[in-house]
Design goal:
heterodimer, A: 403 residues, mainly alpha, D-Maltodextrin-Binding Protein, domain 2, 2 domains, four-stranded mixed β-sheet, 4 strands, B: 305 residues, alpha/beta, Rossmann fold, Alpha-Beta Plaits, six-stranded mixed β-sheet, four-stranded antiparallel β-sheet, 13 strands, elongated
Chain lengths: 403, 305
């Protein structure tokens, strides 16, 4: 154990002496985080909420269409634009200037009032991040109107059954019923009271709440995997052989190096969060123990992934291309750059094979959603398991010397 | 008492038989050299003795321990200088020594070590700032950091300037005086002759001769080469007709080379001839057999061909 600590201390000493490594681990991550924050709207509004411009084309012009416009206009994250026609709105989406557009078809109001099936048309561009979010919002609106539609159908049917008459003014009844149901749904007798715990709930979503943990995880991976590549470099340069001459067990030798990488990774994430909290105004949430544990689990998983990679990668020349691919690929789909919940469902499912996705899920729950330690146990557990598997396989495959 | 016992040691890499059934013993306090050309199998042999490589077959006992089974105990008692010394360039020399000292149960005083290798004034210098010779001396210091009973030196002076080579030889002499056993590999003839008590000559994975350098050279019936310069002109055929001289050659400008099986017989004849004919011998030198001659005699090739 003593020798393991000596090896780890030596690794940290060597790292500190490497000025480029310090730039890579400290200056670059902080700089990139700030740049990304600016690029995605940080600082400008402080805690300003994410607002999506949404062209809405009303081809119906009826009462129900107005109701749809009202509902969409009242949504906190939408800014409704009604000045475009259908083709204009479509071109905006195709040109990437808008994430999506809604078309209210003609006959929408009468269909809803008479209980006939109808649909709002949502135009979105494939592959966008905000498209799925919009789809969710529009589905919520249409879901509300479906409730109205069902209520009207049931009411008319009940009236016909009770009176046995088909001579009544059912259009008028339907209109009045729909209006009454909408009013009642606006103030439902039973509703869920949602209380957001933690301090970030009422302040909204700040881009740095995402950018700081995202880039912290990504650069921790860069630091740890680059240090893991250093073991291959030592192997090729011959310093590892020099260490093997000393009476240091191989387990202590590798363990010491990994401990140093783990500590380095944790230090980097802590530095990033400290910077994020003090300079970028990131609210770290209500659970510092949760934040610490998810950080430790993330760095353990990252360090273990490093062991696996250096066991599989055969030469130093392969290290950078492969680790860069792994880091950028998993950061992109794992939610380090954009919140995972904004991704298409298929991407979200695939992302679960990356440690970044579990780490970011944990960080998002704690920082953006203001969750507690209990909310991230699964993420911590998966990251620990992920690390254990990578570590065991990597250790089995790693060769200290060539045959 | 034997410090090292090697029995029928073998190791192959693919189709190449790097070490092919070698065996020898090294006595405690002895400087033992393994001499041979590059690729002879010297480094593979020393690495199996260090425990760094596993032999295909055969036995190695070092200080009564098995290099693999007693790996860590043995490492506490031996020092190793690798053929290619790779050090941490970003550490200061004193940091480097302290780092490696920390890996051993006991270690010598690093200041004393710096003094011994003559690098006291460089203790605060980064390894990257040291010259090639100074780095080699730093590597020797690392090999001695645990005050080992046995030191392995793999090509200790390869690539060094004459001054550094001489300093290394002096240090090897001091190590022997302190009772340490030294096992070295080299492809330098003069190094083997200068510092080794006994030499094993290795070629193609086999030991082809083993003895003290003097006995190895004395065992050869090789003609001595005698060179001299005279003021006038001599006829080589007359020289060749003299007793004890088998061959004579003019090198131009009054310089001559003669060959003789027994140097003292040829010199006696030559001096008598000079006295009789009245010419003075200048720059007289006698070249004896070297370990290179031994190698050539045994293999038909030069060591550094």
């Amino acid at each position: 154990m003593k020798k393991l600590l000596y090896v780890a201390a030596n690794e940290v000493l060597l790292l500190v002496k490497d000025k480029m490594a310090v730039v890579w681990m400290v200056v670059l991550p902080l700089g990139i985080t700030v740049i990304a924050g600016f690029a995605f709207g940080g600082f400008g509004g402080g805690s300003e909420e994410l607002v999506i411009d949404l062209p809405v084309v009303d081809r119906d012009g009826g009462e129900m269409a107005s109701a749809v416009l009202d509902v969409l206009s009242q949504a906190e994250n939408l800014r409704v634009e009604t000045e475009y026609d259908q083709e204009g709105a479509r071109q905006l989406v195709v040109g990437g200037k808008r994430a999506g557009a809604v078309v209210i078809p003609s006959g929408f109001s009468s269909a809803v009032s008479s209980g006939q099936p109808t649909a709002l048309e949502l135009i979105i561009a494939p592959g966008g991040e905000t498209g799925p979010l919009l789809a969710g919002m529009v589905r919520e609106v249409t879901g509300g109107f479906s409730d109205v539609q069902i209520a009207v159908e049931v009411a008319i049917s009940e009236v016909q059954r009770a009176t046995g008459s088909h001579d009544l003014d059912y259009d008028a009844i339907a209109t009045r019923t729909a209006a009454a149901v909408r009013d009642r749904l606006a103030d439902p007798p039973v509703r869920a009271e949602v209380t957001t715990v933690g301090s970030s709930g009422d302040e909204g979503y700040d881009v740095f709440d995402q950018a700081v943990p995202g880039y912290a995880v990504m650069f921790a991976m860069f630091a740890v995997l680059s240090a893991a590549g250093g073991i291959l470099e030592e192997k090729e340069r011959g310093t590892l052989k020099r260490l093997l001459i000393a009476p240091v067990p191989k387990s202590s030798l590798l363990g010491g190096k990994l401990l140093a990488q783990f500590v380095t990774g944790v230090a980097q994430v802590v530095l990033m969060f400290t910077f994020g909290a003090l300079v970028c105004g990131v609210d770290l949430g209500a659970s510092l123990p949760g934040l610490l544990l998810i950080t430790l689990a993330t760095c353990w998983a990252t360090t273990s992934l490093g062991v696996l990679l250096i066991a599989v990668i055969k030469s130093r020349k392969q290290v950078h291309p492969i680790t860069t691919l792994v880091i950028l690929g998993s950061s992109a789909i794992g939610g380090a750059w954009f919140p995972l919940f904004l991704m298409p469902e298929a991407v979200q499912r695939v992302a679960r094979i990356t440690l970044v996705a579990w780490a970011m899920d944990g960080y998002n729950r704690l920082i953006i959603l203001g969750g507690s330690l209990q909310d991230v146990w699964v993420d911590i557990g998966v990251l620990l398991l992920y690390g254990a598997v990578c570590f065991s396989v990597g250790l089995k495959l790693f060769k200290f010397k060539e045959a | 008492m034997e410090a090292i016992v090697v029995e029928d040691l073998r190791k192959h890499y693919g189709a190449v038989q790097a070490v092919d059934g070698i065996g020898f013993e090294v006595q405690c306090g002895e400087v033992f050299g393994l001499l041979g050309p590059n690729g002879a199998g010297k480094t593979t042999t020393i690495e199996m003795m260090e425990g760094y490589r596993t032999p295909d077959s055969g036995g190695v006992s070092v200080l009564g321990l098995h290099p693999r089974q007693d790996e860590y105990e043995l490492k506490e008692r031996i020092g190793i200088l690798l053929q290619e010394t790779a050090l941490y360039h970003d550490l200061k020399l004193s940091e480097l020594l302290r780092l490696f000292a920390s890996y051993y149960r006991s270690s010598v005083n690093t200041e004393r070590l710096l003094e011994m290798i003559g690098l006291q004034e460089k203790r605060g210098a980064f390894v990257r700032e040291l010259s090639g010779g100074q780095r080699q001396r730093a590597a020797i210091a690392l090999a001695l950091i645990n005050d080992p009973e046995l030191v392995y030196l793999d090509e200790p002076t390869a690539g060094l300037d004459p001054q550094s080579r001489r300093a290394t030889w002096n240090w090897i002499g001091r190590a022997r005086d302190e009772g340490k056993t030294v096992f070295l590999t080299t492809h330098y003839i003069d190094e083997a002759e200068e510092v080794c008590d006994r030499v094993a000559i290795m070629d193609h994975g086999r030991i082809i001769a083993l003895d003290t350098p003097r006995r190895l050279m004395a065992g050869l019936e090789i003609e001595r080469r005698i060179e001299f310069v005279v003021g006038g002109v001599l006829d080589p055929t007359i020289l060749e007709s003299l007793p004890g001289i088998t061959k004579a050659r003019s090198e131009g400008d009054g310089a001559y080379t003669i060959y003789a099986p027994e140097a003292h017989v040829a010199l006696k004849t030559l001096l008598a001839q000079a006295d009789e004919q009245g010419f003075a011998l200048k720059g007289l030198s006698v070249e004896g057999a070297t370990l290179e001659d031994v190698f050539i005699r045994l293999t038909g090739r030069r060591i550094r061909a």
